[in-house]
Amino acid sequence: MNIFKFVDVYGLGNDCSIYLIDGELLVDTGTGANFSAIKKEIEAKHDVSRIKSIVNTHCHFDHTGGNKKFRDWLNCTISIHEKDRKALETGSGTMAELFKERARTVTADKALRHGSVIKTQNFSFRVIHTPGHTPGSICLYDKNYKILVSGDTLFDGAVGRTDFPGGDKGNLMNSLYKLANYPINYLLPGHGAIKVSGVNFNIKQLLNFLNTE
C-alpha cells in the first residue's frame, strides 16, 4: 500500500497520526507544533507538488491545528464533514484549550457528506459519517483494499471519547454498528497502532462492552 504514517510513529507531542496516501492526499495535519519536522520528512521522500488535498477526520485541534501551515506550504484544498465545518472555521469546538493553544481558524474548501468519494491514483475512499466523538466525525473506506481510516471514531481496542462538547455515546454506538457492516482488513486510526486483520471482531467486542456500561 502506498500509505505513509507520520508523527504518531515518532511519538511527537500531542499530534495525531497523519497519513499521506498515494503521495496526493493528507489525512489530518496534527496540532502544527511539529510542522517543520513533518515537512522535512515529506520533502525527503515524496514529490511535494503531487499533494493536492487535506481531509480532516473531525474538527479537534490535534487533527486540524496544522491545516493553515500545510495549506500555505502546499497550496492544497481542505475538506471536512459539513457538521464539523463551523467548528473548524470559527475555532469554537476544536478543543484547542486542552493543548494550551488558541484555535487556528481556517476556511474549508469543501464540505463532505456521507457517501462523498475521494479518489487518488490507487484508492477510492468513500466517506462514512460516524458521529459520536464529534458531530462531523468521518471514516474513509476503500472497498477494494478493505482499508478504514478511522480518525478518532475507532482505535485498536478502543473508541473515541464522547465526553467532549458535541460527543454522544449513542451516536458513537450507532456509528460502530454502521462500521460493522464493512469488511475491514486494515485499520488506520487517528492515534495508536495500525491494526491488520481482526478489525470487525474488535468492533463487535467494543459494542458488547459499550452495551454493558
Structure description:
α5 (169-179) runs antiparallel to α6 (199-212). With 213 residues, this protein is α/β, with parallel strands linked by helices. It is built from 6 helices and 14 strands.
SSE blueprint:
Elements: E1 3-6, E2 18-21, E3 25-27, H1 35-45, E4 53-55, H2 61-64, H3 67-74, E5 77-81, H4 82-90, E6 110-112, E7 117-119, E8 124-129, E9 138-142, E10 147-151, E11 154-155, E12 158-159, H5 169-179, E13 186-189, E14 195-196, H6 199-212
Parallel strand pairs: 3-4, 4-5, 5-6, 10-13
Antiparallel strand pairs: 1-2, 2-3, 7-8, 8-9, 9-10, 11-12, 13-14
Helix pairs in contact: 5-6
Overall strand count: 14
Counting DSSP H or I runs of 4 or more residues, the number of helices is 6
Total tally of structural domains: 1
Tell me which CATH architecture applies here.
Answer: 4-Layer Sandwich
Radius of gyration: 16 Å
Give the integer mean of the pLDDT values.
94
Largest sheet: 6 strands, mixed
Instruction: Summarize the helix and strand pattern as letters.
Output: EEEHEHHEHEEEEEEEHEEH
Name the beta content range: 15-25%
Structural class by SSE content:
alpha/beta
Helix-residue proportion: 25-40%
Shape: globular
Distance between the termini: 38 Å
Q: Let me know the CATH homologous superfamily.
A: Ribonuclease Z/Hydroxyacylglutathione hydrolase-like
**What would CATH call the class?**
Alpha Beta
